[in-house]
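Saturday, quiet lab. Running sequence design on the structure tokens for the scaffold JK sent over.
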């Protein structure tokens, strides 16, 4: 064995010498330090400053112990001796290390927090060519920052001395080289003594001179007289984990490069092995075990299984824990406003004991499971509890390593017999402040007042130094089947069902209208699936809401929409969600239930628990509510009792004696779901009302909140959308069929009344033909633009493939084509009839109806109308918030929003609704003495145009949930096509029908006499009126309409008139 050991030592020595010879070989000059990277710790360095280092670090070199050297240990030096985001501070004086640009603060702002002072050190190189058995040459880089905007110091890949300053942040990077030593002092420590090379900003008087300029870098000075000393404990324990350092200037006080002493602090990290051994301190805090706090006395159900360490590392490590207000504290303000043992800065003190947005994070959690002789589970646990002020970035807080007044190093034990983790905590750097007791629990059930994966307290071992501080880690319901799927939380304890039942009885009085409504409509309920848990899980999905909301009724002024989330935590016996393939045994057990019992059960009220969150500054009182109550599947209403985490001052909370574990549970929440049937006729929006049951003078009272959501889509949303699309498709087929019948009847009327044909307005027919041609060209049914623009934009790509939908779509297009061709045929007859008039002799052009002035007057009327619409919208939009210029369509594509284009498209639809306007103008100009339009034609087409508005008026409003906020939801009091438009447009169309009827019923002379007023005539008597031509037989007239008939005679008449 000795020979084998000797051989292994000789082999290791040969390997080290050969490696060292290669690193010092003159194959090429060593890289300059400024070009070295931080990736390779064995990068060759010159270490030209070793004589200076030896002089400045002689006190550590003289007392250093021999270093037990091997390659594996050297490889561990770099991560062990490096730290990230430690703390630094500077002693008060006149020579600050670097300036800070506070121009990131708003003018006259007094609530900004103090900037963070963070430091990062990285060991970049270790020299294997040893000059001394007691020291190693090392080099590194230190980044120091002052930051208020969330940035923190980093040591990049390429190292060089740098200084940067910008609003809200300053950063200095210094390169060092020196020695690593070990000593037996202070129980054994490692010391790194380094000399630095930096670009330091000039003195403060220079900073003042540049402070008036914008974001200019101050002048910098090269400085190589900087000494950095870092002390690392050799053993990593509860009381010896801190890394302490100081950086000083070796220049004289009068030197412009001089700066006051800088102190640094951090701790050993994940690459160091923690040694449990604080039993004496733990017994001081936790004897007798378990410590009798309020939780232990209450005998709550907590986790006592064998996987405590796994749960702790998975669900708690690195997570932000919420601090519970001191709601039951009754003492002085200083005592009740203090954040437990932590130092209370101005930001925390401003919460006045409510601790709003104050958190605690557990860092560097180390859990060692143990099993005793009786197979009982236990564990040793070590962690650092760090308080996080309201303003601090949580990610930055989780990365910090400094030990200060906001950090509590802890070590303790957990035993499965009691389920309590009891720890002793030491504040800050050393063992002089180990006066805190920490108790943690992992619950195994949910309730309206218990929604946490972990909760605990921090109390004082000494008497009454601070009020016990409580903290918790709430769990969101959706996390139960994602991150926390393996958590021990698997049951829910209902406690507010009686109150919810009373709430239900007050709001559901007996009346016949409700009975009729219940018999006609159905709401989300358990399905017919024999697996009850799977049915409950599907029902929970339908009742879950993730959708923007708006005030109910809709406010006239545009405001920011809150986003409403209602997550179902439990329903009936089910907690979370259920998947049958994961629980085959449970499926078999529930499948044996009888159909009759299942049917009866579906008609009963269901216990339900949920969590409601509302975003938006106007909804802070309802931003987070824990809910519990009853769901009635017969009418789709949910009656819930709510509890909210009140964040008020401790005085207000203490005076509110009716708080339950610090929660305000005097809240009633009612949720009304839309029916699953007739969604095309009833608004598919959910309504939510939140009401406080407190008196108006109670400081915890808040005004009632009434909201309605954007359309919600149940799991079977495609079938619902298809149902509505099919109904509207059938409606289009019906209206187009009526239109074709009316046009065909007009063609038959023209055949019998040939003398009246020239007096049909070609502009009127052109408007109709244009309306029919647009869908054939663009694929958009202009007839129902208003209807389809809302409900059909939300259809999915898969829905377009539905065979039934395509049958309806093609049938609609065929009918549109037929209507278009019949309208063109009608226009052809009118055009040829007017050509036929030109064959009459003598030729009088004024006798032939002409649509030029009709087109001009019609265009003028509509141009003025469109201009009025634009002006009205400009005025109304001036009272709204600025609208965004882009919107997102249902395919996720962004488009530029041109509001005038939208108005023009809607106005074109209005022109089609008022298709009789050109005919009325033509009748007036031509002073007709005939009946060019059949009653069934102009009345039937008008009915076809009115029917979409009637449908739009009686149906539920659908707003597209896929568009952007400012574009998708229209305000009925301001939008062009509003409820007012659905009433006014049909009324005007009916008036036009009456006018046409009167014009055709009475001839011009009779109408003029009726409307004569004094010596004036409302209708002028022209000298050249359109006189009716002699009657011709229909057969002869049809023959004359054929192209080429009497064509020569027409040309001869025109020649004679020119002559």
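Result came back. Writing it out in full:
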């Amino acid at each position: 064995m000795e020979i084998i050991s000797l051989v292994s030592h000789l082999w290791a020595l040969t390997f080290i010498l050969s490696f060292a010879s290669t690193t010092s070989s003159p194959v090429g000059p060593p890289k300059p330090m400024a070009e070295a990277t931080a990736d390779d710790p064995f990068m060759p360095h010159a270490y030209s400053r070793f004589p200076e280092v030896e002089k400045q670090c002689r006190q550590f070199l003289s007392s250093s112990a021999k270093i037990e050297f091997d390659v594996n240990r050297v490889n561990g030096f770099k991560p062990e001796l490096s730290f990230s985001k430690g703390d630094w501070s500077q002693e008060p004086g006149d020579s600050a290390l670097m300036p800070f640009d506070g121009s990131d603060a708003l003018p006259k702002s007094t609530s900004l927090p103090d900037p963070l002072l963070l430091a990062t050190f990285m060991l970049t190189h270790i020299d294997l060519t040893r000059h001394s058995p007691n020291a190693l040459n090392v080099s590194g880089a230190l980044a120091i920052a002052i930051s208020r905007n969330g940035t923190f110091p980093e040591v990049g890949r390429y190292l060089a001395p740098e200084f940067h300053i910008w609003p809200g942040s300053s950063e200095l990077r210094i390169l060092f080289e020196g020695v690593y030593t070990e000593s037996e002092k202070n129980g054994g420590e490692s010391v790194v003594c380094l000399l630095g090379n930096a670009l330091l900003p000039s003195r403060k008087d220079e900073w003042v001179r540049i402070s008036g300029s914008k974001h200019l870098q101050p002048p910098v000075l090269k400085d190589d007289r900087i000494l950095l000393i870092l002390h690392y404990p050799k053993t990593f324990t509860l009381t010896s984990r801190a890394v302490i350092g100081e950086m000083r200037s070796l220049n004289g006080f009068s030197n412009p490069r001089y700066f006051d002493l800088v102190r640094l602090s951090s701790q050993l990290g994940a690459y160091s092995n923690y040694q449990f051994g604080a039993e004496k301190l733990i017994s001081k805090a936790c004897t007798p075990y378990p410590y009798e706090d309020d939780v232990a006395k209450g005998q709550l159900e907590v986790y006592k299984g064998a996987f405590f360490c796994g749960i702790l590392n998975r669900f708690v490590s690195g997570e932000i824990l919420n601090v519970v207000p001191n709601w039951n504290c009754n003492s002085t303000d200083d005592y009740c406003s203090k954040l437990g043992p932590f130092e209370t800065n101005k930001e925390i003190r401003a919460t006045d004991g409510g601790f709003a947005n104050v958190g605690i994070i557990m860092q560097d959690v180390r859990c060692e499971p143990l099993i005793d002789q009786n197979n009982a589970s236990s564990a040793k646990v070590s962690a650092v509890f760090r308080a996080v002020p309201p303003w601090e970035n949580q990610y930055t807080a989780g990365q910090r390593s400094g030990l200060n007044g906001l950090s509590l190093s802890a070590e303790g034990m957990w035993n499965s017999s009691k389920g309590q983790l009891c720890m002793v905590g030491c504040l800050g750097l050393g063992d002089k402040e180990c006066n805190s007791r920490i108790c943690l629990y992992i619950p195994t059930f949910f309730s309206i007042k218990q929604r946490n994966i972990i909760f605990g307290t921090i109390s004082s071992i000494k008497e009454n130094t601070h009020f016990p501080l409580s903290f918790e880690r709430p769990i969101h319901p959706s996390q139960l089947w994602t991150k926390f799927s393996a958590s021990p939380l698997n049951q829910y304890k209902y406690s507010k069902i009686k109150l919810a039942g009373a709430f239900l009885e007050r709001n559901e009085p007996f009346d016949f209208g409700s009975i009729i409504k219940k018999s006609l409509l159905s709401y989300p309920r358990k399905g017919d699936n024999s697996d009850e848990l799977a049915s409950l899980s599907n029902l929970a999905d339908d009742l879950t809401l993730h959708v923007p909301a708006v005030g109910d009724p809709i406010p006239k002024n545009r405001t920011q929409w809150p986003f409403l989330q209602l997550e179902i935590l439990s329903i009936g016996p089910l907690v979370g969600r259920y998947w049958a393939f994961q629980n085959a045994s449970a499926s078999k057990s529930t499948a044996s239930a009888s159909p009759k019992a299942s049917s009866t059960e579906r008609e009963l009220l269901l216990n339900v628990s949920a969590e409601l969150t509302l975003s938006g500054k106007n909804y802070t009182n309802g931003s987070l509510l824990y809910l519990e109550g009853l769901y009635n599947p017969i009418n789709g209403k949910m009656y819930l009792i709510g509890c909210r985490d009140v964040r008020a001052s401790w005085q207000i909370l203490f005076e509110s004696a009716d708080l339950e574990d610090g929660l305000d549970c005097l809240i009633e929440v009612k949720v009304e779901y839309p029916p699953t049937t007739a969604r095309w006729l009833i608004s598919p929006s959910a309504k939510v009302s939140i009401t406080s049951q407190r008196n108006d003078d109670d400081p915890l009272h808040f005004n009632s909140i009434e909201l309605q959501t954007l359309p919600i889509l149940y799991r079977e949303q495609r079938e619902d959308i298809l149902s509505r699309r099919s109904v509207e498709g059938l409606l289009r087929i019906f209206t187009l069929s009526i239109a074709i019948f009316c046009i065909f009847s007009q063609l038959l009327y023209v055949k019998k009344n040939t003398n009246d044909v020239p007096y049909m307005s070609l502009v009127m027919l052109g408007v109709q033909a244009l309306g029919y041609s647009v869908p054939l060209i663009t694929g958009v049914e202009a007839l129902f633009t208003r209807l389809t623009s809302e409900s059909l934009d939300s259809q999915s790509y898969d829905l377009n493939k539905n065979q039934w939908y395509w049958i309806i779509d093609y049938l609609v297009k065929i009918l549109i084509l037929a209507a278009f061709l019949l309208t063109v045929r009608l226009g052809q007859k009118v055009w040829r009839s007017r050509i036929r008039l030109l064959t009459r002799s003598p030729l009088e052009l004024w006798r032939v109806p002409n649509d030029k002035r009709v087109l001009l007057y019609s265009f003028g009327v509509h141009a003025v109308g469109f201009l009025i619409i634009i002006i009205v919208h400009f005025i109304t939009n001036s009272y709204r918030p600025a609208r965004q210029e882009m919107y997102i369509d249902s395919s996720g594509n962004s488009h530029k929003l041109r509001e005038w284009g939208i108005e023009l498209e809607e106005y074109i639809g209005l022109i089609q609704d008022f298709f009789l306007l050109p005919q009325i103008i033509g009748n007036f100009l031509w002073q007709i003495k005939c009946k060019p339009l059949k009653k069934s034609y102009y009345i039937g087409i008008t009915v076809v145009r009115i029917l979409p508005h009637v449908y739009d008026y009686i149906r539920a409003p659908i707003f597209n949930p896929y568009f952007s906020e400012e574009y998708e939801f229209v305000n009925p009091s301001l939008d062009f096509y509003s409820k007012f438009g659905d009433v006014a447009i049909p009324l005007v169309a009916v008036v036009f029908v009456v006018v046409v009827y009167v014009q055709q019923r009475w001839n011009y002379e009779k109408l003029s006499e009726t409307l004569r007023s004094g010596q004036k005539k409302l209708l002028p008597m022209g000298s050249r009126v359109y006189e009716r031509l002699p009657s011709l037989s229909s057969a002869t007239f049809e023959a004359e309409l054929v192209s080429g008939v009497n064509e020569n005679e027409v040309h001869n008449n025109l020649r004679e008139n020119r002559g």
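Notes for JK: The two ends are 138 Å apart (CA to CA). Residues 278-474 form one domain. Ask whether to fix the surface positions before the next round.
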